[in-house]
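Ticket #488: bound-state structure for 2-acetamido-2-deoxy-beta-D-glucopyranose.
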Amino acid sequence: MRGLFWHIFSRAALIMLILLCFRECNPMPDPHQRDLMLKQEISQQVGGGVELTPAELQLDSLLHQVKLKEMIYSPFPPANHFFKVRHIVQKSPVFKLLQKMPKGAALHIHSSAMVSVEWLVLNATYRPQCYICFTWDGSLQFLFSTTMPFPRWGCFVWKRLDMLRASLSDVTAFDNSLMRNLTLFTEDPETSYPTQDAAWDRFEKIFSALSGLINYAPVFKDYIYEALTELYEDNIMYVELRVGQSKAYELDGTTHDRAWSLEVYRNITEQFRANHTDFIGTRIIFTVHRNLYVYQVKQAVQEAIEMQQKYPDIVAGFDLVGREDTGRSIWYFRDALSLPSEMKTQLPFFFHAGETDLDGTDVDRNVLDALLFNTSRIGHGFALGHHPLAKQLSRTRGVAVELCPISNQVLKLVSDLRNHPAATLMSDGHPIVVSSDDPTLFGTTGLSYDFYQAFVGIGGLSANLGTLKEIAMNSIRCKINSYTSFEK
Ligand SMILES: *[C@@H]1O[C@H](CO)[C@@H](O)[C@H](O)[C@H]1NC(C)=O
Ligand SMILES: *[C@@H]1O[C@H](CO)[C@@H](O)[C@H](O)[C@H]1NC(C)=O
Ligand SMILES: *[C@@H]1O[C@H](CO)[C@@H](O)[C@H](O)[C@H]1NC(C)=O
Ligand SMILES: *[C@@H]1O[C@H](CO)[C@@H](O)[C@H](O)[C@H]1NC(C)=O
Ligand SMILES: *[C@@H]1O[C@H](CO)[C@@H](O)[C@H](O)[C@H]1NC(C)=O
Ligand SMILES: [Zn+2]
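RESOLUTION: The complex was predicted; output attached.
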């Protein structure tokens, strides 16, 4: 008995000695342990726990090979301004694969900038009774009208577009200039938008120019159909749109109320689904600008509650939009945003929060405040990394970050997308979804461009098919989350 004990003891001691000696006497770390650690790290990333079928594993290894080649592209698209490399992305084999892939739901798109600028100019502006005006500050306004519009919106001279086009020798050049007016896309972004202020200034102006064009009732209907078509063609099966407060109008200047617009969203989606039976649907997140007053936001919240009770199938919730750095904070609107719980009702929130690099300021608290108001998702969450507590909350509650890489780059939060803060969210397995924010303005359609940036730039070589699968599945799961939260 005693002999056996000593036998085991001395064996154990010997192994300990060897291990110790391996550590102490051998300067090289244990390669086996290293392998385990690397595997463990990969298993923590977004998609690290996803099981792949044999066919998917085959695709994953192909994808890895193709991506490996792309990592040494020069110029490397994610490291450059998207506007300068879009044509390279379009030719990329990874991008082409991403286009074919089912991407789930598009959860962060603004309805005021959701179709390609080509469609807006070549279809919408070619309809009869379209008037245009060039404003003193170098921007545009459109209005459909039976008669010559009155001076308004900084416009003294309105011209009917068909007559204007008839008087031009080069209509194509003119149409191209209209397209340039209606998008931020340009070959020389650094000169056109030297600062965040300059980019946001043009950004807001374009929204104002688009308004008269897309809110004309007949255009509005086709515009929604076109948006669904562009998303569907990029293999997206569901969309949640951030919809602002502008109203649709008719030729005689009469306007429609919000209920009318909601019915149109519902009707056009049904019409679309009749031809595309695998498309799931559209839901609306009401938005107001964050430069409004508390009482105005209160009214908007109240209206959103009413609309949601009346149209629960199509109204998803509520959000605040506009530049966070210059707008009011979520905490500033706390009275308005407490209304639903005061009224003992449910209005899911989908706050833009942390679309800023102003660390430590009032607006920088938006991420935490969004979570304290039980937000269902976080729009952008660019600043989330600065707030470990908020990050933890977002993770444990499964509140996904809506990552819009191209938007963040164009609006100058980050220039080389490999340095996007979501890189750590991705390697840490944080819940994220990918979206496009304002496709018209950024020169994209669908989600594939943003998926490309997230997959190749932010995720790097470690992002794999499991990552893509998890991001797509997250988007469906988050959609279901917001459904259930309002059914409660
Ligand atoms: C615009 O698109 C609509 C719907 O797709 C189509 O019916 C219409 O003919 C187009 N109009 C022009 C001017 O291209
Ligand atoms: C907008 O269109 C006008 C008229 O064609 C043109 O003069 C102007 O340069 C355009 N603006 C931009 C930013 O392209
Ligand atoms: C939506 O469709 C319904 C049923 O076809 C119709 O009665 C209603 O007028 C439509 N609403 C709008 C705003 O077009
Ligand atoms: C949609 O489907 C209807 C009926 O099935 C058909 O008449 C129509 O041409 C289709 N439209 C498109 C754009 O495919
Ligand atoms: C957030 O959710 C918690 C738990 O459901 C609830 O107690 C709290 O009142 C909610 N807060 C707000 C501001 O709605
Ligand atoms: Zn947005």
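RESOLUTION NOTES: Confidence is low (pLDDT under 50) at residues 483-488.
TICKET STATUS: resolved
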